[in-house]
Amino acid sequence: MKRSKHLILLPGLLCDASLWRNQINAFRDVIDIIVGDLTRSETMEEMAQQILSEAPPTFALAGLSMGGYVAQEIMRRAPQRVERLAFLNTNARADSDEQRRIRAGLIDLAIIGKFKGVTPRLLPSLIHPSRMEDPAVAGVVLEMAERMGQEVFKRQQKAILGRKDGREDLRAISVPTLILSGRDDLLCPPKVQEEMAELIEKVKLVIIDHCGHLSPLEQPDEVLAELREWLGYC
């Protein structure tokens, strides 16, 4: 299979290009990299359509967490435009009732101005315990959340709340697909990525040790190696 000329990276909730900075630095001389802007819309459908409207005709696509939800919607809308697909630390299930309750409560807090994004109290749910004092990981997460702010948080959480269960849609994916999971991811544990892998034909499943929910930051070298192989640059 020929190499892709363009790579679209889709960040997670309250994340921006800094999530992918190690991979961007490594690939910038060999492939055109676009980091999707997922800050302007309140539904997965709108986010996907925005990415498609601004994207080249064909591209490789990688999404983490919320970015993975958007990638699933892109595959429902325009699978012929995606040459390769990577799901990192994401999930194809809709939220459970408990998850929806928690998410709605966070939106309410943001509306009244009492939610301040990712705080040190919330970091343990996002990154491995060993990286809690690492400014290259924990510090970057806090900085991204501060840049995104409350309004973006509200829009993104509303979009996540409105997503549908996409497990059956995964069966239609026919392009080479990488599914990458953190062994210690509390938000999207390996079992949900294993479930996704069982539904996709051309798939490679990778579970990275000592890694939480933000694998490109936490284990940049291992993630880079897997993406390099996935893109055909190994």
- What is the radius of gyration? 16 Å
Q: How many structural domains are formed by the residues?
A: 1
* Secondary structural class: alpha/beta
- Percent range for helical residues? 40-55%
Strand order of the largest sheet: 2-1-3-4-5-6
The chain-level mean pLDDT equals 93
Q: Give a quick account of the main beta sheet: strands, pairing sense, barrel closure.
A: 6 strands, parallel
Span between termini: 14 Å
Describe this structure in words.
The protein has helices at 21-27, 44-54, 66-77, 97-111, 135-161, 190-199, 215-218, 220-231, and strands spanning 6-10, 32-35, 59-64, 82-88, 177-182, 203-208. The chain has a single domain, classed as Alpha/Beta hydrolase fold, catalytic domain (Rossmann fold), CATH 3.40.50. The longest helix has 27 residues, at 135-161. It is an alpha/beta fold. It has a 6-stranded parallel sheet with strand order 2-1-3-4-5-6, sandwiched between helices. It is 42% helix and 15% strand. It is globular, with a radius of gyration of 16 Å.
Task: Please sum up the structure shown.
With 234 residues, the chain is an alpha/beta fold.
Question: Which tags fit this structure?
Answer:
single chain, 234 residues, alpha/beta, Rossmann fold, 6 strands, 42% helix
Q: Can you lay out the helices and strands and say which pair or pack?
A:
Blueprint: E1 6-10, H1 21-27, E2 32-35, H2 44-54, E3 59-64, H3 66-77, E4 82-88, H4 97-111, H5 135-161, E5 177-182, H6 190-199, E6 203-208, H7 215-218, H8 220-231
